[in-house]
Amino acid sequence: MGVYDAMSNAVVGLQAQAYALQNISGNIANSSTTGYKSVETAFQDLLTSSGTTSTSQNSAAVQASSVLTNTVQGNIAATSVSTNMAISGDGYFQVQSKVGEVDGTVLLSGTNYYTRQGDFTMNADGYMTNTSGFFLTGLPIDPTTGNPSGSTAEPIKIDTGIIPAKATSSIAYEANLPSASSVASLASTDLNSPSTVAGYITASDNSTFLTKSLAGGSVTAYDAQGNEVTLNLRWAKTATDTTTGANTWSLYYQSDSAATGTDPEWTNVGTSFTFNSSGARTSPAADSISLSGVTVNGTALSTMSFNYGSNLTQYNSGTTVTQTDITQNGYKAGTYTGLTINSEGMITASYSNGKTVDLYKVGIYSFDGDSELLAISGNAYQQTKGSGSPYLSSAAKISGSALEASNVDITDQFSKMIVTQQAYSANSKVISTANSMMKDVLDIIR
How far apart are CA 346 and CA 340, in angstroms? Predict the structure, then answer.
């Protein structure tokens, strides 16, 4: 039976080498496929008879099986497409497939697949899809907190419409008012309209006011329709307690730059600020005040919170206001201009008004048993019992405007192809040799 076994083993050997050649050909064919992972071939012997001693055992047939190289990193190269992504480290993008369309609405499978093919672009519906047709998923970002909303990823769909205007509702302010006694003070007797010091400054008193006050900075604010106005601020020292050394300041904003005569040009915010001899603010006690009814050159602004916290002081710093920060939270309407993706997978939309909005966080999913994933068409995988369940990984990073190349080494594949060819030829030689031996046996009985 040895000759028959030899011929049988050779046939199995031919099949195994053909299987290996199939994997080699597939690797070479996908050498330019983005994120492709080569499939190697492992050979395992199969004993036809275990024998009773080591000396009675025969050489066995062979079984070929595939081995995935999912954990072998491919080279990462930069691209000019902002939505392209490459993973550096172990992990996969989570994607879903399209199953149909109803009344123009895309229907997705709801089944999650995993891929490293990150050549994503935005389709006509705003979905992020790769060239294999899979839809990228991500965690939506809560616009209020800036953190991911929930723990369930959903297909990423980008709204490329106009971002509406937002009225200024908060101003952050940091400044130090000079404590030097030489700083000019503003008294009622300095003005032609002395009764208006606490309420407003008329245009006719503007020159005197500019001399007796200090510039406090300016900021561009927005109304509900996105109209922008420049909010100019000035500080005036309006009282000094000679006994305690405390100083009281008033804050004004320019309400009408075109005012004339007795028309108000500068308006008092309505709150006095008092600092003790040590430079600390004693009044108001709150860390912010509310500015309501603010109108600048005819444009009415919404009620705003003027926030200074512990950053409004009065120390000796020369004779000017040392204003270190003045920012606000409003903006005008803007049109969509593009996307950026950072290393943490945060997708951020940019708008023509300079505003950026975080939209989604792309998760990187890992498996404990990468080699047990089941490959499907489209350079993707699905989980199996052997692979275990996916989990979010924080070790891998994403490179935006980049793609991961196939990890196929053409030189290595050519070398393996030569070895496979030689092994295939050798197996065919075994068959011809066994056939010749069988003929010799048959010739004995003739």
Answer: 8
- The arithmetic mean of pLDDT across residues 208-228, rounded, is 96
For residue 433, the SS3 value is helix
Q: What is the pTM of this model?
A: 0.77
Amino acid identity at 300: A
DSSP labels for 321-339? Answer: -EEEEEEE--B--B-EEEE
pLDDT at 102: 86
Q: How far is CA 168 from CA 42, 69, 296, 333, in A?
A: 66, 54, 13, 13
Give dist(CA 18, CA 12) in Å, integer: 10
Q: Dump pLDDT digits (tens) for 240-288.
A: 998 898 999 999 999 999 999 999 999 999 999 999 999 999 999 999 9
d(CA 395, CA 416): 34
Peptide bond into 284 cis (omega under 30): yes
Contact 69, 39 (CB under 8 A): yes
- Distance of alpha carbon 264 from alpha carbon 246, whole angstroms: 29
CB proximity list for 46: less than 8 A, separation 6 or greater: 12, 60, 61, 62, 63
Per residue in 137-190, pLDDT tens?
Answer: 999 999 888 899 888 999 999 999 999 999 999 999 999 999 988 888 999 889
* Contacts (Cβ under 8 Å, ≥6 apart) of 199: 264, 267, 268
User: Is the separation of the CB atoms in 303 and 168 below 8 Å?
Assistant: no
